[in-house]
Amino acid sequence: MSFRIFSLLTLFLVCLLHGHSQLRAEKPNVIVIMADDLGYGDVSCYGATALKTPHIDQLAADGQRFTSGYCSASTCTPTRYSFLTGTYAFRGKRTGIAPPNAPAIIKPGTETVASLLKRAGYTTAVIGKWHLGLGGEAGPDWNGDLKPGPLEIGFDTCFLLPTTNDRVPQVYVKDHRVLNLDPADPLWVGNKKPSPDHPTGLTHRDTLKMDWSHGHNSTIHNGISRIGFYTGGHAARFRDEDLADKWVEKSVEFIEANKDQPFFLFFASHDIHVPRMPHERFQGKTSLGYRGDSIIQLDWCVGELMKTLDRLQLAENTLVVFCSDNGPVMDDGYKDGALEKVGDHRAAGPYSGGKYSVYEGGTRTPFITRWKGHIPPGVSDELVCTIDLPASLATLTGQKLPQDACRDSFNVLDALLGKADAAGRAHLVQQNNGNNGTYALRVGKWKLQRYDKQTARNIIVEQQLSNTKVPQYQLFDLEQDPAEKQNVIQAHPELAQRLKKQLADLIEQGSSRPGAVAPVEK
Ligand code: NG6
Ligand code: CA
Fold this sequence. Notes:
522 residues, alpha/beta, Arylsulfatase, C-terminal domain, 10-stranded mixed sheet, 10 helices, binds 2-acetamido-2-deoxy-6-O-sulfo-beta-D-galactopyranose, binds calcium ion, Alkaline_phosphatase_core_sf, Sulfatase_N, Sulfatase_CS, hydrolase, arylsulfatase activity
């Protein structure tokens, strides 16, 4: 080959590679790590001192740590629904905490963060807890094809815990099937005792390795009784202790297989939801009991994912978002010592409330973005929410959203990327569970709470769950009173009126994203 041809070829290759890297720069890989029931104050970069979370802290040190980062609901199913669809869960049907045999809540054809990234050329996966239902109206066909599910709403592949691990069954779902299911031992799942002699947390309580405190007293698996009943599927069942390792193993496989093209991974950790049963190597590692040990396990998972990105030289080509699906809870149905061992640890940080509550502790959670070389390290006070990820990632990857899709998702990309002077949301509606008339509206420093049933749950998270009587409306000044202790509604009647109307409008209008319209009801 002549020197001239060689030079031209080299030049051509350099251009090609350069062009390729420029293209990649606009389509970084995206990993959303969603923790389960992790509170604002549960990790050391948000103030925890009872334990250390070095890997999550490192993410924060390398990226933006948000002080007003939210999930949209204070329970799992509605937050996951609105993170994926970009639409407030109270607009949807059956978006409250899903029971074991729930059908798929997000209908095929719905635009999701996964479908829009898939359209942009990404390979998409969800690995971990699903809890958004599987199957058609009749519910999941556990021994057949479990669809519709994630694969019908934009995910190329999935490896799931189908509901949440305090609910039956304890099996993995890979794409459309229960993994390792022996047809000779079919899996049955129901809400009635299948036979009079079926052992439960009530009849065999003394055999349990972790006792229940409320609910959670039906079928026993791995020495832990659950919500709901099941029989069969023995070869498919997993051990609670191995869940985190499995999520990491499957995620590393997925990242390795897709290292040369853009990928989206929704890493849906089950930590630190009940039953908290971390791997033996994490048990006893903190003074906080299994709740704290599960936080250490979650931190380990984050470390493993980041090591994988480093090993494959993907850290500068991957946007990582770390968030939680709702705020903290101590006793959520099992006697795991969380309440007794909490000491000075404040799981919701300076905030009141936690899981099930629209006080800040219910939805204001750790929220970190990291994209090495693209996001400057720092702390951001901008208001951002997991519901904004669809519109923001659509902007990042140049995708247009259909008018009736992602109806409450705001493009806050610049805030997520830590750009100077970038603004987050102007307002955010919070909810607790399903569509039950409990809402809050944050606008700037003001927070309006609305309770159509006039009861609020669990205002001090480090206490046993309780219901407290509250007025229908309360108003708080989050700047003066972040813990929402002083209801100042009497002192600001006009402001309260305005916020009540704004909240009612946001609920009734059917959409809040500029340009979006609610679909016509059929
Ligand atoms: C509640 C359960 C709780 C937990 C929650 C869902 C009882 C008494 N309580 O109904 O243990 O499973 O649902 O949590 O059964 S979530 O994080 O998935 O929303
Ligand atoms: Ca949760």
